[in-house]
Automatic annotation (TrEMBL):
Gene: kdpC
Quaternary state and interactors: The system is composed of three essential subunits: KdpA, KdpB and KdpC.
Family: Belongs to the KdpC family.
Membrane topology: Single-pass membrane protein
InterPro entries cross-referenced by the UniProt entry: KdpC
Protein name per UniProt: Potassium-transporting ATPase KdpC subunit
Membrane-spanning ranges: 12-30
Primary site of residence: membrane
Keyword check for Zinc-finger: no
Pfam families, per database record: KdpC
Amino acid sequence: MKAFGKTVGKTVVFCLVMMLMCSFVYPLALTGVSQLTMKAKADGSKVDKDGNLTTDTKEAVGSALIGQDFTEDCYFQGRVSAVNYNTYTEEQKESGEYAGVASGSYNYANSNPELKERMEKDLEQFLKEHPGVKAEDVPAELLTASGSGLDPHISPESAEVQIPTVAKNSGLSEEEVKKIVEENTEKKTLGVFGEERVNVLGCNLDIAAAMGK
């Protein structure tokens, strides 16, 4: 019985020590190191209007990791977002209508008629905004929602199909817009993992700068 009591005591002590280490010491140490070595990234990779990482919230125009909705036709559009990229107004926040950070997709099954209806509506709107583009040339990702609803990237193909419209409405040449897309295209990780992707915010910041905004 005495041996059993010692075993239980050691087990309790071990659990308490591990809880302290894993719940407090490790997170605090990790937070401290990240704040010292990569503060801008640790704070959310916020970006200023020049495209540089910033720790000043007042200067931030977005995040390199979080997508946002661009409504002006001189800018590139990102993927469909079920949570509208988690945007909200101060009024919604104060009234409680906005309950906090949101992330997620529509979760429609392929057989769901609402999915077909939404995609057809979005396709119609896209073709209206991008005259000259055929329905079969529109990449599926521009009509389907990302899993998080916060995706900041599109594929090079999704950027390419928008170049003529962006160039026309921004006053830039298609060559200038293509160059901007190339400069904001992130390659495969280690040249092998993932896919090439275009950061929408990066493209639009460069377009705004080229327009003198």
